[in-house]
Amino acid sequence: MRIDLHTHSTASDGTDTPAELVRNAAAAGLDVIALTDHDTVRGHAEAVAALPDGLTLVTGAELSCRLDGVGLHMLAYLFDPAEPELARERELVRDDRVPRARTMVRKLQELGVPVEWERVAAIAGDGSVGRPHIATALVELGVVETVSDAFTPEWLADGGRAYAEKHELDPFEAVRLVKAAGGVTVFAHPAAVKRGRVVPESSIARLAAAGLDGIEVDHTDHDEPTRARLRGLARDLGLLTTGSSDYHGSRKTVGLGECVTDPEIYGEITRRATGAFPVPGAGGPHPA
After folding, report:
1. CA 238 to CA 212: how far, in whole Å?
2. Which of the ends of the chain has fewer CB neighbours closer than 10 A, N or C?
3. What is the pTM of this model?
């Protein structure tokens, strides 16, 4: 089985609609895909409705968190989307995205960049507006060559010249809320230093003690020595290790299934979850 547990659609900052995403996943030879848009579950229904034969969908979200001034992302899988506490926190994060993005656009304008809010909003479309949409506008203007190039201190990285803060969850609270909603938590790309500051391993240990289920090890932002170190850390802490593409469609160069999760780990995730269950396409594999 080929299992990709971290992807994005136009419901947040990907370029594939949820329906296109699942069709592209099947075409890429995947057996299981998780849809983990930022702080939203809005794309799930469309993905389920379009789910091809032979592909299983894991519903999830990538929650925006901050610990000791460092931003981090928490992947939440198979939680009950109607659980009120977690739903309220996701709404608070989403509601803060527009004023935050407007602030970043204003800061860019003050730096002499002729970016317009109307263009950023058009790029975001119906998705939850965020930094990748602003970065795309910067690429269009020729300010940077790629979306990734915008995530530097010069522009949109944490603490960068055009950065603006938004409402974010405490990761310990995120773990508690997801657990209460019957879900499973995995710390996304925990050592992606190219994105900015990362939390120390001592913080990962504290999160593990608080109920964190796993860490995302096989990710394109982790080189091989980093992956080996994270595997050792996970082993010491009793954490699951996942792999995934963090696919964003054409916004990034990473393809679906570029990194994958071991089927045994996927089986353990589904066993731990009580809030929701993987959705098999007609004739697709059933959850472990």
Report:
1. 10
2. N
3. 0.89
